[in-house]
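Appendix C reproduces, verbatim, an entry submitted by the partner laboratory led by Prof. M.T., so that reviewers can inspect both the input and the predicted structure.
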Amino acid sequence: MTSTTRFAVLSVAEGPPAEVIRGAVVYGVTRGALIRPGDLIESGPGGLLIMEIRTGTVTAAIVGLGPMTRAQWAEQADAGITLNVIKGWVKVDTASPSAPLEVRSSGPLLGAVSHSGTYVLHVGAGADQVFYESGDVALWLPVPDGTGTTATSRQGEFTARGAGGLRSRRGVDPAFLNELPGAFRDPLPTGLADTVHANTEPQRIRDVTYADIADWLTAPLEWRRGFVERFRPRLRDTAFRRALDARISVHPEWQPLLHARSTLPTASAH
C-alpha cells in the first residue's frame, strides 16, 4: 500500500461471524481483517464490529457497527469517506481525520457528517435517528437519488426523520437509548488495531447470490453505480439471472445485459 491508501482494520469482531462482499464474492471476516473501499459489510445478530479507518499510518476515524447492520464503504474519487447504511446501528468517532466522514441512510431519511466529532446513527424501519454526542457534527438530509444537503445540529441533540417529518430534541430519546447497543454507550476503543495481526485473510464462503445483494441492487442509484460491471460475471448463474429478471423493474440498468446473451463474460472474474 502507498502512504495515502485508505483502509480499515477490523479491531473488534464479536458475536456471529461477519461477512464482507468484495467484488462478487462473499467472505467471512474476523478480528484483524482489512476492510477496503467498495466492501459491503454485514454484521450478524448480536454482533459488534469496530473498524479503525486509516489513511496510511494515520487513524482517521473509529467506526462501530452494531447487530444486523448492513453498510457499504462507498468508493469515490474525492477525499471524503462515505458509509452507506441500509439498516442497523453505526457509531462514528472521527478522531483526527484528513477528510470528513459521512454516514448516509437508504431511506432516504437521515444521515450525519463530521470532521472531528462523535455521533450514533440508527437506520430503522420507517425512521432514521441521529444522536450528536460531541465535537463537530452536521446532519445529512438525503434525497431519493442518494445525494443531499447538510443541516446544522447541536451537541447533545437527538434528531429523527420519518413519515412525520424531521423532529429534534435536546437529550437522547428514551426509546432510542433503550435500543442502543450496549457497546455504544461508551467511547469506542482506540488503538486496538495495533494489538492484532492485521492482514488476517478473509475466508471465501461463496459467490454472491441474488439474495445477498438484492437490497443493494435496489439502493439509491448513486450507491449502486458500478454494480453492473462488478456483478456481471454472476449472470452465468441461472438462479442469479432468473432472480434478477424477475425484479428487473427495480434495477432497470441490468436490462441491456440481461437480454443480450452475446455480451455475457466468458471467463471467471475470480
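DSSP finds five helices and 16 strands in the chain. Additional entries are available on request from the coordinating office.
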